[in-house]
Amino acid sequence: MDTYTAKEAKNRLGEVFRAALREPVVITQHGKPAICIMSIDNSLIQRAASSNTQDVLDDIKHRISCEVLASFPIGMIKDRSRENIARWRRNGTTGLAYEEWLDIIDSDDDGKLINAMVGLNENSNRLRQSIPYVGMLHKSLVRELNEKIRSGTRTEGGSSDRR
């Protein structure tokens, strides 16, 4: 997934459009993701995806990750993630995914963390099954996101209307 600052996106609009035809593009503002741009085809594919339980959970974790990125600076997300992983290690409840997260968090490339958090590829989705930045959002917001996504997954006739 490509990432551009708002200024870069403004100055390189054609490049941003071409990139968005291939995959979603994240536009950051003041160092935080603000907008995700994707082609109509990719958007329709996302909306047409089945609404099975795992897809719903994937959507919830993706939305939580987007909210965390929009609400907190990258440094704070990294610090909280490290604290959570350290606590889980002490309790003996970590797995391989958390080692991958630590590699991403400790990287000098914040784009890797952003991609892992909000990317729409299979690897990002897999990593989000074990998000290390839990507890950053207020419980009421997480509950609201859960309810909104779960209630939006099925419309009359069982078709998908996820966003």
Summed up, what is this model?
This protein has helices at residues 6-11, 13-22, 40-48, 53-71, 74-90, 96-106, 110-118, 122-127, 139-151, and strands at 2-5, 25-29, 32-37. By secondary structure, the chain is mainly alpha-helical.
Characterization of the model:
With 163 residues, the chain is mostly helical. The chain has 2 domains: 1-48, YefM-like fold; 51-154, no CATH class. Helix content is 61%, strand content 9%. A hairpin with a 2-residue loop joins strand 2 (25-29) and strand 3 (32-37). The longest helix is centred in the middle third of the chain and has 19 residues, at 53-71. The two termini are 20 Å apart. Residues 153-163 have low confidence and may be disordered.
> How many β strands by DSSP?
3
Element order, helices and strands?
EHHEEHHHHHHH
The residue ranges in which pLDDT falls below 50 over 5 or more consecutive positions are 153-163
Backbone structural class = mainly alpha
Number of domains: 2
Helix content: 55-70%
* Tally of DSSP helical segments: 9
Q: What is the CA–CA distance across the termini?
A: 20 Å
Strand order of the largest sheet: 1-2-3
Give the overall form.
globular
Largest sheet: 3 strands, mixed
Oligomeric form of this entry? single chain
Beta content? 5-15%
Q: Kindly state the mean pLDDT as a whole number?
A: 82
**Rg, alpha carbons:** 16 Å
